[in-house]
Every structure is written in C-alpha cells, then in structure tokens.
Amino acid sequence: MRKVVFKWFSISFCIIAALSFSSCYYDYGVDTSNSDIVVTLRNPDYNFQGVTKYRLVDSVVQIGGELTHAYDNTIISSLRSNLNALGWLEVQDSVGAGIVSVAAGITKSTYTVSYGSDWWYYWGYYWYYPPYYSYTYTYTTGTVVTLLTDLNQANGGKAPVQWSATMNGIAEAGGSVSARISSGISQAFTQSPYLK
Amino acid sequence: MSKILKIMMIVVLAGLASDKAMSQSYYTSFEYSAAFNMGKASEYISEPGWAGFSIAIKKATRKNVTYGLVLGWNVFNKEATNATTQINNGAVYGSYAKYYNYYPILASVGYMFKRNRAKVIPYVQANLGAYYIYQKLKLGVYDINNDNWHFGFGPEIGLIFPVSREVGIVVNGKYNYALSSGQNLRGEDDNSYSFINANIGFVYMK
C-alpha cells in the first residue's frame, strides 16, 4: 500500500514541480499596447479646492532628447479639455486669486538593447564569439510631462510645482501615438480626483 | 573468564554493528517548496510563491541530533495590466510585474524524535545562515532591480514517512526571518523579510 501511495506521490510531485516552474517568471512583454505608464504626484499641503482658473502655456517645451513638435496640438488640446472638465476657467493671467499655471514638455529617447554580445555572458562558449544567438533591438520612448504651478506662491522667481503628471511609453508608428498621449493625459486627471 | 569476556565483547560489537547497519545516518531531501510572505514583504507581494524547491542534507548522531545544510529557492511574482497603484502623494498607472527571489543558504541543527523502523519520524530543527534576496519591478519599459545578502534564521518542524529503508516522503514547514540589510526597492532602510515555507518531497536515507 505504501509503495502504491509513493508511486502516485512521485508522479504528482513531478507534475506539480514542472507546472510551478513553468509559470515561474511571467513576462508580459513590452509593446505599444502595454508600455504606457502615467505617474502623478501632488503637494499634499496644497489646497486644490481653491483653484478656479488656469492659464495654459500654449507651447510645448522640448526637453532635450530628439525634438519633435508632432504632438504639440494633441497635448495642448487634451490638457485644455481635461482642465475644463474640472470646472476651471481658462484665463490669460498667470497671477490672481484661484489661478494656476499649467505647462507641458515632451522628450523622445531611443534605446538599443543587445543580448548575448558579451563573451562572458556565454562563458562556456566563448569560442563562438560573437554568440550565434545574440540579438539586438531598438525602441524609442516618449515622455510627456505636465506641471501645475501656483505663481501666487512664487518666491525668488521660482514657483513650486503643486501637481505633476508624467506619461511615458513606446513612441513608434503603429501604436497611434497621438491617441495614446491623449488617453494618458486623461488618465492623469482620472487618477487625481483631488483636483476637482 | 577471559573467554566469557571475549564472547560478551563480540556480542556487544555485533549488536552495535547491526544497530548501525539498521539506522540511517544521512538524510538528503529534495523538496517542492511553496512560500508565503509575511510582514513588509507581503505589502509588495501578498500572493503565495508557488514556485520553489529546497535541498537539505543532514547527518544524525546516535543521540538523534542532526546537523546539516539547507539550500533553497523561492519565487514570488505578481503582475497586472493597466492597473492604478497608489503611492505616497500620488499614483502610478500602467502594466507592471513584481518579483521576489529568495535563496536561503542555511546551516541546520535539529532533533529527530524517532528513527529506526519508525513509521513516522517527527523532527524539529533550527536553521541559521544567509539569505540572498533579489527584488525586481518591471514597470512599462523599465526594469528596476535590487538585491542584498541578509543574515537570517528560523525554526522548522517536519515529518518523515519512510517508504522503504532508504527512501521516504518528507513534509515540513519553516519560518524564515531575514534581518534588514541594505535598502529595499523604495530606498527604505527597513529591508527585513519574513516568510513561511511549506515543503513536500523525497528523502533518501543512508
């Protein structure tokens, strides 16, 4: 009886071990459909309930990297739409009761990733250098940054940032970059309910 | 008189030899290991780690005291697609995957309550040594990694079910506590870990 139990235990053990290790490392891969992240941060001491008006800086700042103005209109219109949805009124003044300033910046960076290009990576097969199964791929990421400042609190020419939203993702053709920027900006406002 | 003494000595030695032949001194186990985070570690990943294994080698003395080595590997992972995570003064939205890898390398001292010809061999054990802990966060296109060596310890209780004189099934539970070392992924100095293992596997007795 014990040996029968042991036999079935052995078979079950091997199956469970194989199943558990096959799901060991989940890799969701990275493409335009799931690379986007949106990070929002706020000053917890700032009273967002007191904001009723905004001034939107109507040009998008290029922050180093590879310059592009292709998405400026998308960024500005998406911001305006979401700021209006908060019930805030757009004004041209930067300073005044209940007025904040909102500005956006964009940058693009290209990365090249290589696997298996170091001889030590395959130390047991270094005589095959370069490794016969190495590969390289390139991807470009884009980052849109939105900053909300209150110039009424400016000190020495500097105004502290009260809220920021950073959107990052793969910026390549085929992924409808404009739609993803627009969606990312909307998500930034969705995950910041304290702005209302 | 001397003949009787010689005969007695032969009988005693033969008895000892036969006892030694029947009792197993070395226990080597290969175990499937599930792990369950506790404390701060469970704040990062609360789901059980179903992938893992452990190898334990120990020698038993005649007084049923054992000493040996425990090696292991446990993996935890948690992933989400397009999820919002609250952070200090903000939020992060996107797809992410989180990982923990625990590699205990421990010395053990224990006691077996029964040994020879027992149907079940219960034992208790204390483990002490090092834990190599690797933490990873994959967020969007970014990978953030963190790894540290920790000093740690923990008790273990278990049962061995001998199937034959040389092979058995072992079931055990371990509590692990790895003392704080370095910083965690958030940059916090409190980087201690605690987790429980539930293991089942084969044991070879010799």
Instruction: Provide the succession of SSEs of chain B.
Output: HEHEEEEEEE
- Helix content percent band of chain A: 25-40%
Radius of gyration of chain B: 23 Å
Strand residue percentage of chain A: 25-35%
Written as H for each helix and E for each strand, in order along the chain, the element string of chain A is: HEEEHEEEEH
The number of helices of chain A is 3
Structural class of chain B: mainly beta
Quick one: which chains have the greatest interface? A-B, 37 and 32 residues
Overall 3D shape of chain B: elongated
- Decide which structural class fits the backbone of chain A: alpha/beta
Give the terminus-to-terminus CA distance of chain B. Answer: 39 Å
Between the first and last Cα atoms of chain A, what is the distance in angstroms?
70 Å
Structure description:
The complex is a heterodimer of chains A (196) and B (206). With 196 residues, chain A is an alpha/beta fold. Chain A has helices spanning 2-22, 72-85, 177-190; strands at 37-42, 53-56, 61-62, 89-90, 99-115, 135-149, 161-170. Chain B has helices at 2-22, 39-44; strands at residues 26-38, 51-60, 65-87, 90-112, 121-139, 142-162, 167-178, 193-205. In chain B, strands 1-2-3-4-5-6-7-8 form an 8-stranded antiparallel beta barrel. The longest helix of chain B is centred in the first third of the chain and has 21 residues, at 2-22. Chain A binds chain B through residues 2-3, 5-6, 9-10, 13, 16-17, 20-21, 23-28, 30, 34-44, 139, 141, 168-170, 187, 191-192, and chain B through 32, 50-53, 75, 77, 79, 81-82, 84, 89-95, 97, 99, 138-142, 163-164, 167, 169, 200-202. Strand 1 of chain A pairs antiparallel with strand 4 (90-112) of chain B.
Short note summarizing the structure:
With 196 residues, chain A is α/β, with parallel strands linked by helices.
Name its key features.
heterodimer, A: 196 residues, alpha/beta, 7-stranded mixed sheet, B: 206 residues, mainly beta, 8-stranded antiparallel barrel, 65% strand
